[in-house]
Design a protein that fits this description.
The structure holds 2 protein chains of 2 kinds.
Chain A (H helix, E strand, L loop, with lengths): L2 E5 L2 E3 L5 E8 L8 E6 L5 E7 L6 E3 L7 E6 L4 E6 L8 E8 L7 E4 L3 E5 L2
Parallel strand pairs in A: 2-11
Antiparallel strand pairs in A: 1-3, 3-8, 4-5, 4-9, 5-6, 7-8, 9-10, 9-11
Chain B lengths: L3 E2 L3 E4 L5 E7 L10 E5 L6 E4 L13 E6 L4 E6 L8 E8 L4 E3 L3 E5 L1
Parallel strand pairs in B: 2-10
Antiparallel strand pairs in B: 1-3, 3-7, 4-5, 4-8, 6-7, 8-9, 8-10
Classes of the chains: A mainly beta, B mainly beta.
Chain lengths: ~120, ~110
């Protein structure tokens, strides 16, 4: 059974940093790209960042480019999102999602999400 | 970058059929697979359709997906509507370096 468990959310001051983690199990982790998707309160889904299965290529939305970094540790079956320079508009539930293949595409499994609140 | 446009909301009665559209702003709808996700209130999204028209195991065949190159759009059709289908539905596609979501459609079953 595929499981994705996010952690690391919480209250952060504007300008601060936070690292999210997503522990994966139930599939061959390094064979699949992984993605972070966020959802601001009362809003729709927004793609944030993606990383290929090997970790050699990463992609970021323009809204987070230069501030967020996606990475993965295939030896630990864990996906990360390092968030720096956080802004109020980054407040959202952050979901990790398993891609259908090794590179950018669609998703078949989602985690339960972790809430990041950026506020003073 | 392209955009995916969905109707903000749709409503239909139980037992009826509803179709939700998703129009791609630029580039061919057929050039990259379209997926559909369901999100019930307070829950994470789940995958309903992948690769235009494929259903993951466990998704009822009441849900179907298609694309129409003439209108450059994708569609999610739900037949035999049930009250439990009331949820937000999102289409999603991608290009070489971006993944794009539609704005979401709120389905009301009344």
């Amino acid at each position: 059974e595929v499981q994705l468990l996010e952690s690391g959310g919480g209250l952060v001051q504007p300008g601060g940093s936070r690292r999210l983690s997503c522990a994966a199990s139930g599939f061959t982790f390094d064979s699949y790209a992984m993605t972070w998707v966020r959802q601001a309160p009362g809003k729709g889904l927004e793609w944030v960042s993606a990383i290929t299965g090997s970790g050699t290529r990463t992609y970021h939305a323009d809204s987070v480019k230069g501030r967020f970094t996606i990475s993965r540790d295939n030896s630990k079956n864990t996906l990360y999102l390092q968030m720096n320079g956080l802004r109020a508009e980054d407040t959202a539930v952050y979901y990790c999602a398993k891609d259908l293949a090794g590179d950018v595409g669609g998703f078949d499994y989602w985690g339960q999400g972790t809430l990041v609140t950026v506020s003073s | 970058n392209f955009m995916l446009t969905q109707p903000h909301s749709v409503s239909e009665s139980p037992g009826r059929t509803v179709t939700i559209s998703c129009t791609r702003s630029s580039g061919s709808i057929a050039s990259n697979y379209v997926q559909w996700y369901q999100q019930r209130p307070g829950s994470s999204p789940t995958t309903l359709i992948y690769e235009h028209n494929q259903r993951p195991s466990g998704v009822p065949d009441r849900f179907s997906g298609s694309i129409d190159s003439s209108s450059n759009s994708a569609s999610l059709t739900i037949s035999g509507l049930k009250t439990e289908d009331e949820a937000d539905y999102y289409c999603q596609s991608y290009d070489r370096s971006n993944q794009v979501f539609g704005g979401g459609t709120k389905l009301t079953v009344l």
